[in-house]
């Protein structure tokens, strides 16, 4: 075979073929491909001329976004590629059916024979779903390679044309089948686009029309990440920022073809719901470096069908990518709105250079062409290239780190879901429901167990806040309103309340609640409901209430621990934003602030880990050092004590250790320290202090917690270990802490507990056996 390529610009039609005409018409089979960026009238004129000049030739044509003529790139011209074959038969077809899949089926049935080696296909670039079209061909002819692409129109996105013989069409597809036993066909492709940013999800689409990405309209998605300048000029600007997905292990780009008034976007190929996608951006060096990826090739001509985005992105560098092909064999082609490439099956590509190498000869050509990219450019370009490479590296590393963090979050999400399921089972077993009241909307959210407690059909949904208040017995409503006001202090409050269910049954609930704030404004109340109505075992009730109270205490501790780092993070972010607004921000400042925020976030994460360790149940005795126990407690409570201006002093015998239940002892000590902290609120003292002492005495270990918070009145000191007895105002205490502490010391730790009122405070003493392992 042999190929002659011609560049037609203005009025050179009559002379352009004169030199080779006689040799061309002697060919057994003549294929003419016409790639035109000129207007429709000129395009039709050229087709009529070629049809009359080469009456036996098979002609297919496509409008373009740029023409490839040997090693040069042109626009608004026409390139004519004439190939003559010795052992190959050619067959033409044009099809136009509304269904792109059916159009592909029809085309394949008309053209493909057992001897068909290749289909060169040009399809309408604006209306055709290239992926569906190729799937139609593949279902009829899975053995046939397909090359070609979607027609362009110089990025006007108004009218794209395809041609067959002397006619142009604005819909459908044209193709030529190459039937041969001798023809060598090699498919090549080169990508060079990088994924950037985090992963996104197609959340609503119909084949190639995408309605939402990450649950926002496709247009809004582009506007959010690429800005108004890009979005206002879609689809032209969007072609340089494709969406990249992975199919069969290969990165495949999808470019925009149409922007719709409803905020959706149409792409050259399918983007199905649930697909994971990334934004893509071109890497100039990667694009031009060695596009011919094979070491040797059987070739007498190259046809290149390359994406319009490459020409627009690469600008003056585009010819560097074409040069290796033109150095090996006659080369022609055009810039498309979508490229057809066949590896195992035909795929629609975007942003990609595809090439087809043809030969009827057995001669092998070596392809050792390498482009020394940097040597070809000036110093300024090299500097810009290095800057671009550095920025891309930063973006790539950051993206990977974000993806890793996202993967961790997904793992944590699954763990949280598992824990929520466990919590639901625990609520079911313990008959404790949880709830949330949105203070902006007064909307109540219930857990499944809350529906059971209220004997309410879950399909009815939660009651309104007014409905809930009306369930409360009239004599208890004032107490409810008072308790809700008390929540403004941010503490956990508890109360018993009676309600009349829809079935008429009156139930008694023990409600524990906490108000949640955002920017110092209350946003919601969260709480739990314990049904006391049918619970018969008093100790079970008290145990559950005590755990809820301690959980509230722990939440309060975390809030204190987090306040300082959250304020620091907020201040850093505000400072960074102000510097950015003033255009004085520096990369060093960004790095410094980022590192600071990461350290603060790690500190907050450590607080959560400490909290989880304290709440983790341990049912086995262990050898513990008293110094470590009090150190761990102070790590949790230190911020609270400091905020209350309480000085905490320790006097622990060196090396003092005992073999006991660590969590039970911690529970009791936290309760003692919390009570002392709360007592200071009612007793003014400029020199607040809590003293912790621990020492060995004979065969026992003595632990003391001493405060100067005013002491305990003689009239009530004998009652403080009774259940539900509290000296705190209503809603601030359950009266269970000391009762449970005594129960734990005596029943779990086999010890004794005593209390003494001092002149200016109280002294709680625990006596434990110093047993060893």
Summarize the structure in short.
The chain is α+β, with helices and mostly antiparallel strands. It is built from 19 helices and 40 strands.
Describe this structure in words.
This protein is an alpha+beta fold and 773 residues long. It has 19 helices and 40 strands. The strands form eight sheets. Strands 14, 15, 16, 17, 18, 19, 20 and 21 form an eight-stranded antiparallel β-sheet that branches. Strands 1-6-2-3-10-11 form a six-stranded mixed β-sheet, with helices on one face. A hairpin with a 2-residue loop joins strand 14 (193-206) and strand 15 (209-213). Helix 4 runs parallel beside helix 5 and helix 18 packs antiparallel against helix 19. The longest helix is centred in the middle third of the chain and has 52 residues, at 379-430. The model is unreliable at 370-377 (pLDDT under 50).
C-alpha-based Rg, rounded = 39 Å
Structural class by secondary-structure content: alpha+beta
Shape: elongated
Mean pLDDT: 84
> What's the total number of strands?
40
How much helical structure, as a percent, in the residues? Answer: 25-40%
- Tell me the span between the first and last alpha carbons: 92 Å
State the helix count.
Answer: 19
Largest sheet: 8 strands, antiparallel
Strand fraction equals 25-35%
Q: Uncertain segments of ≥5 residues (pLDDT<50)?
A: 370-377
């Amino acid at each position: 075979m042999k190929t002659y390529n011609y560049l037609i610009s203005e009025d050179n039609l009559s002379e352009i073929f004169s030199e080779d005409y006689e040799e061309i018409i002697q060919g057994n089979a003549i294929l003419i491909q016409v790639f035109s960026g000129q207007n429709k009238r000129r395009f039709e004129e050229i087709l009529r001329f070629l049809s009359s000049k080469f009456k036996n030739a098979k002609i297919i044509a496509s409008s373009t976004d740029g023409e490839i003529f040997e090693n040069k790139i042109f626009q608004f011209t026409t390139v004519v590629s004439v190939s003559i074959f010795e052992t190959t038969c050619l067959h033409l077809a044009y099809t136009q059916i509304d269904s792109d899949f059916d159009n592909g089926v029809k085309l394949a049935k008309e053209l493909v024979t057992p001897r068909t080696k290749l289909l060169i296909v040009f399809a309408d670039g604006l209306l055709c779903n290239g992926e569906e079209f190729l799937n139609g061909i593949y279902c009829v002819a899975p053995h046939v390679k397909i090359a070609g692409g979607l027609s362009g129109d110089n990025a006007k996105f108004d009218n794209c044309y395809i041609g067959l013989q002397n006619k142009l069409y604005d819909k459908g597809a044209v193709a030529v089948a190459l039937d041969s036993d001798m023809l060598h066909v090699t498919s090549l492709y080169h990508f060079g686009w990088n994924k950037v940013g985090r992963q996104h999800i197609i959340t609503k689409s119909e084949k190639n029309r995408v309605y939402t990405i990450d649950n926002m309209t496709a247009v809004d998605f582009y506007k959010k990440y690429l800005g108004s300048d890009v979005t206002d000029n879609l689809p032209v600007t969007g072609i340089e920022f494709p969406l990249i997905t992975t199919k069969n292990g290969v990165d495949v780009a999808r470019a925009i073809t149409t922007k719709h008034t409803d905020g959706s976007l149409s792409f050259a190929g399918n983007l199905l719901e649930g697909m994971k996608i990334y934004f893509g951006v071109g890497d100039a060096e990667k694009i031009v470096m060695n596009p011919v990826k094979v070491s040797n090739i059987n070739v007498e001509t190259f046809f290149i069908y390359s994406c319009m985005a490459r020409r627009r992105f690469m600008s003056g560098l585009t010819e560097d990518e074409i040069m290796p092909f033109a150095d090996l064999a006659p080369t022609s082609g055009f810039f498309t709105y979508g490229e057809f490439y066949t590896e195992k099956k035909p795929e629609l590509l975007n942003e990609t250079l595809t090439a087809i190498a043809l030969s009827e000869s057995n001669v092998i050509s070596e392809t050792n062409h390498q482009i020394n990219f940097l040597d070809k450019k000036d110093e300024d370009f090299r500097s810009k290239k290095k800057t671009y490479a550095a920025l891309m590296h930063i973006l790539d590393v950051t993206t990977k780190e974000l993806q890793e963090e996202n993967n961790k979050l997904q793992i944590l999400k699954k763990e949280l879901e598992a824990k929520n399921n466990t919590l639901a089972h625990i609520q079911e077993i313990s008959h404790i429901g949880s709830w949330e009241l949105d203070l902006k909307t007064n909307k109540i959210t219930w857990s499944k167990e809350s529906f059971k407690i209220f004997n309410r059909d879950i399909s009815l949904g939660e009651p309104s806040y007014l409905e809930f208040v009306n369930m409360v017995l009239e004599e208890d409503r004032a107490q409810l309103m008072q308790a809700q006001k008390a929540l403004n202090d941010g503490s956990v409050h508890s109360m018993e309340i009676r309600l009349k269910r829809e079935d008429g049954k009156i139930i008694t609930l023990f409600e524990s609640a906490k108000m949640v704030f955002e920017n110092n404004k209350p946003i919601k109340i969260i709480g739990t409901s314990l049904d006391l109505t049918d619970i018969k075992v008093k100790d079970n009730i008290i145990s559950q209430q005590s755990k809820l109270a301690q959980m509230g205490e722990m939440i309060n501790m975390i809030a204190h621990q987090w306040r300082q780092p959250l304020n620091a993070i907020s201040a850093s972010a505000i400072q960074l934003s102000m510097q950015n607004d003033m255009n004085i921000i520096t990369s060093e400042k960004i790095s410094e602030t980022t590192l600071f925020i990461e350290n603060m976030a790690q500190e907050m994460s450590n607080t959560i880990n400490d909290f989880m360790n304290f709440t983790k149940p341990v049912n086995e005795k262990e050898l513990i050092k008293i110094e470590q126990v009090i150190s761990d407690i102070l790590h949790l409570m230190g911020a609270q004590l400091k905020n209350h201006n309480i000085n905490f002093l320790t006097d622990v015998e060196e090396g003092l250790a005992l073999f006991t239940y660590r969590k039970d002892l911690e529970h009791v000590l936290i309760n003692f320290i919390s009570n002392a902290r709360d007592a200071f609120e009612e007793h003014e003292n400029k020199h607040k202090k809590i003293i912790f002492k621990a020492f060995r005495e004979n065969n026992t270990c003595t632990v003391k917690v001493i405060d100067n918070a005013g002491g305990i009145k003689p009239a009530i000191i004998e009652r403080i270990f009774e259940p539900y007895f509290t000296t705190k105002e209503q809603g601030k205490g359950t009266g269970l802490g000391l009762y449970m502490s005594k129960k734990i010391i005596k029943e779990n730790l086999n010890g004794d507990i005593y209390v003494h009122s001092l002149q200016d405070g109280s002294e709680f003493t625990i006596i434990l056996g110093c047993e060893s392992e």
